[in-house]
Prior knowledge:
single chain; alpha+beta; 25% strand
Amino acid sequence: MRKIKSLAVAGALISGLAVVANAAPAHADTLRNVYYSSYDCYRYGDYGVQNHMWSWYRCDYQNNLWFLWSVP
Length: 72
């Protein structure tokens, strides 16, 4: 009975690891660059979309700087 129980536990662990290994990674935002003006941030963001570098982007204003974020 002990042997069966230990085999069942080992099988459960292996199958759990297989599920975790096959999980797709989440697409997190990537910081592309930092700009002093909104014009440059949006201009380069549009450039990246037009040239298929990323599918979308956003520009955030913080501490007098513009941060360009996108998903690869």
